[in-house]
Every structure is written in C-alpha cells, then in structure tokens.
Amino acid sequence: MTIRFSQLKKTSLTEARNERVDVVITFGRFNPPTSGHQLLVESVKKIAKNLGAEHIIYATHSQDKNKNPLKWKDKVVFMKKAFSGANISEDAKIRTLFEALGDLVDSGKKRIVMVVGGDRVSEFDKLVRKYVDQMGIEYFKVMSAGKRDPDADDVTGMSASKLRAAAAEGDFDSFKSGMASGLNDRDILRLYKKVRDGMGIKESKVNESFETFLTEEEKKTPTVIVLTSDTDSDTVDRMAKIASKKGSNLYAVDVDKAFIVDEDVNDNDLTLHNYDGNNKKLTVVLDNTIVIVRGGVLNSQSGIAIWKTLEESGAFVINKQDPMEFCQNKFSTSLGLELNGLPTPRTAMVNNEDAIDMALEKVGGKFPVIIKTITGAEGIGVSKVESHESLKSVLQSLWKFGASLILQEYMEIEYDIRSLVLDGKVIASVKRLKSNNKDFRTNKALGNDTEPYELSKEEQKLVRKAAKISGCYYAGVDHITVDGKHYLLEVNGSPGSGAEPYFGYDKGGPISSDELISNVLDYILDKENWQYAMKQVGYVEYIDIDGTGAIKARVDTGNSGFNVAHVEDVDIKDGKITCKLNGKKITKKILGRKNVKVGDEEENRVHVLFDVVFGGKEYKDVEFTLDDRSNRVYPVLIGRQFLTQYHYSVDPSQKFVMVESLQEKAPPDPSMERFIRKNKQEFIDRYGAEQGMEILYATAWKMYNKKNEDIEFEFQEV
C-alpha cells in the first residue's frame, strides 16, 4: 500500500473531528516495510494527533514464498526500527483485522478510525460496516491516506511488490532504494536476506553490493561474556553449556580478578586479563560481543569499571549500568513506578529513630509491616515485624551494620508472580508460592514451590510498562494481586532462572529453566535484536542548555536538522557569539553557519555546540543552530537527529513524560524551593547526581501537593 501524504481527504478529517475518537489504526502486510509504508504510518500518526487519539499499526500474519516471505515476528522487529515513534502492535494473538477490532473494543476503545490507501476505502468500509453493531463499535470511519501512483519514480510509487521483485532478482541496490529512512545499511542488509530466505532463495552466490556490507566478523556467531562475582554459579554453568550447543562461546568473567589495560582497548577489540583467575586472557571483537551482567557486579568497584568500559567501547550490554542501579535501589524503583502511575505498596525510607513513627504512619500505621534493605535479592534483607517494639529493635540492629532501610505496608498474599521481559516482550512468567513453614517470603531461592502462570492482558500491560520504566533490556518484574488489584513489588535487572516451570508465551505452555535460557540466548544471539529500547518522551519536555536552567522544548521528529535555541541581545565578534539564552549571558565559539529551510525560504543561522541535560542525562557537544524564536510558543526545538542518536521516541499525545516534568507540575513555591536547596546535596550524596535530583524533585512535588513541610528527606513517602 502506497499513499501520497499530502492527499489526505480534508472532509473525512473534519467529520472525524466532530466525533470523539479513541484510536486510529491501519492494518497491512508490510512485507517488507517500505518508504511508501512510512508515509502511511506518518499519516496515521498525524491523524491520531489531530483527533487527540492513540494510534496502533497492525501487521498481518500471512506468510508464503511469493507475496509474504517475511514472518510476522520479523516484520514487527523491522517495523519498529523503520517507523520511529510509531506504536507497532506486538500482540501475536491478533492475526486478523476483526481480532484487532475486537481487542480494541475489549480494552474500551470503541470509537475507531482506520486509515487505508485511497483505492481501498470503500472495500474496508463495506467489510467492517455490517459487523459494527454486533462487535460493540460505537463509531467507525475509514479514512483515505491518499491515492497510489504505481508509475511514479519517487516514494509515492514505491511498493512492497517492487522490493520483493528486486530481492528475487538479487538487485540489492534497488531494494535498498525503497527502504524506510529509519533503517540503517546493516538493517537493510538483514531485511534483504530475510526476504530472500523467505522466498527460498539460497545465497550460493551473492552480488557485490550485498557482500560489501558483510564482514567476516559479522558472519561469526557472537561471543557471550557473563560478568559475575560467582563464576561457579549453576545459572552461569548452564548458560555456558546451552550457548556451546548453539555454536557460541560463553566466558564467565570474575570481576574481582579480571583487569583491563588501557592499551589493550582498540577500535573494535578489547582484552580482559586474568578473566578466570588463572592468568588467562580473553580478546573479544566488541561489535560481535554480548555482555550479560549479574547483580553482584554492582557491589564490586572493579566490576563496575570493567562493565562501564565494555559498555562504552561498543559491546552489546544486558543490562546497562543506569537501569541496573535503578532496579537495585528498591526505594528508587518504588518511587519511579509510582510516579509513572503504576500501583505499588506504600513505601517509606527510614534512617533514624525520630523518623520511625511518621514513616510507619505513611505506610498505613498498622502491623505487621515489612522492613527491607534498600538493596538485596532472593529475599535476603527482608523482615516482617509484628509490633512497635520489634520494629524499633530490628531497625536499630540493621542500622548498626550501616544498612539503608525502607518500610513497606504488609499485604497478605498466598503467592507472587515473577515475569521475565526481554526487549519489551513478556517471554515467561511463574507463580511463586508461600512456603509451608509460614515464611511470608515467596522467593524460589528459599525453597518455595512454583508453578506456571499465564498473565492476563491487564497484567501483561502492567509488567511491560514496569520493565520499560526501568530501562532494562532484560528484566524480572514481580507483582501481587490483592482484592482484585495488582501491585508491583520490584524490578530485577539480573533475574535468575531457577523458578521453573515457567509459562512460556512462545510455546503457549510450561517450559523449563533450560528452555528459558535457550530462548533468551536464541534471541540475543540474533544481532537484529541488538537495539536498546527507546526512551519515551512527550512532545514537550524540559531541557537545560549550558547550565542556563530548565527551558521548555518542542520535541519534533519531523525536523531532521539541528536543534534550535532562541537567543537575544546577540553580539558576534572574533568568531564568537555573545548572547542571552534563557535570560542568562553566554559566549560560544561559532563553528560556522547553516542554511536551514523554513517553509519555502532558507535561513542562515549560527552553528554552535552546547552541553545539555535532557531526560536526566548530560550530553556533551550537542549541535544547535541559533535563532530568534520569540514569535514561537517554545524557545527550543529538539530535532530528529538528536532523538535518533540517543534513542528517544516521542509520544505525540503527551507532554512531559520525563521526570523533569515534575517541575511543571510543582509551580515555584518558597517552601518547596527552600526544601530543594536545603536537601539537594543530601540527595546527591545518597543517590548520585542524576537519580538524586529526580528523587528530590519528586519528593518536593509530593510535599507541595500535600502541603506538608515537616517531612524530612530520610523518610519520604513514595
């Protein structure tokens, strides 16, 4: 299906605007996804934005050698990469348009607009119209995304059939010319091969264009490194045996004994010395290496250094350091989930005796109550106390050993659920039962029984969102159900595999821990899956440019040029620009000038580099052009180049998705500002600069809304 974006029927859009619309969809083969499909997807996104609705892109499951060579799973992978910011359905159970419509109705989305090519409006309208009432659809409209022009030489004439023909003929260059802009050369190469494989074409002789993209190293099975402080663990041993069967070498690296010499870190290889404690060294090709990090590495300074070096040098790391630290700190995890609208047990941090009574009140004021060390795993460091006397005694004992502690309300349960999420998809889940010896903990490491558990759609959505908030590529998410309501307990950035048998979603039934490990390795050994989850932002967010303070920025995926910042009182002299940015005077070296197209005209703008803080992260030397944006709503524009480079995706339906938006929700208030100034250093020292400021602003926001100025930072309510 190919459309001309500019030919959207205004009458249809006007009609739809007069109706409340829940969701805008399209349903197509995308076999393979093309630049023409990209126009369709962009049309869906724009219509949804204009109507204030969500959007979902569905791909068919049809598969045959001629018209549908790609598997559904492969299509979804490439569509996510090709169509930046698009919501691609990953529900494998939805195979037809009517299943999609039924699922939407079941989820409360009963007012639906469907976007198709101009030549298929009548066909789809007739197909669905007669079933609207019996399906419970309250409003349904088929809208045109424009007419096809199959003879055109540009993107409006691009079709999947043309690209399939190019692939069949071995014409890689023609195939590449029709690809969506979100795919890089390596992605296109892999897609080309997938299409040819689906057609049953053997690559006995590949053409020159194809061969140039594949190095010998890329053809090799990736090496797997497991960073651990326990090289003899059962999990690591089983991983090594299963990886070996798949033709991959897996090495357990003892982070307390291994070391790296700076001269052994080259462009694409790195040497680990004494990696096994027996004076052996291991040299790996970085862009062909997977690094799996076990939880104990966070307790080793040398381990953190090795981990960070591998991460920054280009290896594919599961998980990165920031998400792992977020998961390890149970208070940060609970706070982060709560601030994103996910239910958790009431939680408070308590670090001194004066805080006990108020912290207890904040978690419900009832016994029993749970005490947890702020870090810990496998149920270690978790206590249930039944009285005020016991509470004080246990806290005092743990404080003597320097433990940082949280209180959490106690919820009576018979079991909890551990779900494993890999690259945004729930792959397995298991029910962990309370032990017969009346221990309130459900951890498998304590010897408790387990059984397979299939999540409901509601639970799957909750679990996926929790994993996404954590930023983990692979995570274990724990939740409970009390009186019909689901509560998230924690997110584990280094989940074990021992709680078998699991319910495996690919299999649709029970799987063993070895099967689980095998499935995970199959997925991560495929380089097509080496793409970290996008960090989601709203279409307006705060940005700090060169320390001038928070500025509202418009986030625009449609802008492919440099970011733009508003400046005033400009003075250019000796290759430098002096100006005011966000009311503060700055001086920057001018790198040059850039011609920027604005409408039908071009503007010549000064080009500079800024250090910025965005999404809680600091980015050095970010390219900006400078302009007078006094007539614009937002003084800063963040363009597609920055968003793509740092893996941000934009939710066009929301403002202020990031934590920094709390500043918007908490207007300046003298008491709040005093609290922030007073406790800033305490929070930074305790949680680090980035996380500390997030928690500080979140706490200040909570206090501001509750008008409670007496709360101290040691026991902030989540």
| C-alpha geometry | globular
Count of DSSP-assigned helices: 23
Look at the structure and name the CATH superfamily of the largest domain.
HUPs
CATH class descriptor name of the largest domain:
Alpha Beta
What's the alpha carbon Rg, rounded to whole Å? Answer: 27 Å
CA-CA gap between termini: 49 Å
**Structure class:** alpha/beta
Helix content: 25-40%
Q: How many distinct folded domains? A: 6
Give the second-level CATH assignment, the architecture of the largest domain.
Answer: 3-Layer(aba) Sandwich
**Percentage of residues in strands:** 25-35%
Record field, number of beta strands: 33
**Arithmetic mean pLDDT:** 81
Largest sheet report: 7 strands, antiparallel
CATH topology of the largest domain: Rossmann fold
> What are the segments in which pLDDT stays under 50 over at least 5 consecutive residues?
1-11, 204-218, 441-446, 659-668, 705-718
